[in-house]
Amino acid sequence: MVGVRRLSEELLAEGHTVRIHARGRSMYPVIAGGDSVTVRLPLDLAPGDLVVYKRHGELVCHRLVSLTGGADPVPQCLTWGDALLEPDRPVPVDRIVGKVVTIERGRVSPSRRLLLLAQPVLKAGRLNAAVVSLLSGLWALLAR
Question: Which range marks the domain in which residue 71 is found?
Fold first, then answer.
């Protein structure tokens, strides 16, 4: 029996779009657990795109920061989860299985709505992660 992740990868490789349910908080507030993302084969990649890649048998969605040629014959991608303090280790471009083309948001709490409004002016990385952490913590205190 073919697993859902493997089936999704095969469909993407054949040029189909795939809808995937997100889990985790590394892309919060842009993507949160319970959201659905539509992913397609990445025909064109540019910094700022949300890419899906394979890491340790799992599919990960993070923001593409840069593409580099490097000394390696396979170009490398630098990716970074918006809510993380550090970028990921470089990802070979051949591990990119898709690019997010739409996001269907699940529950949008007032604190997430505030973060979504602030997010465009923040850059992926430490500043964004610090603001997300600070505002999430503040909202949790106020909600008590």
Answer: 4-143
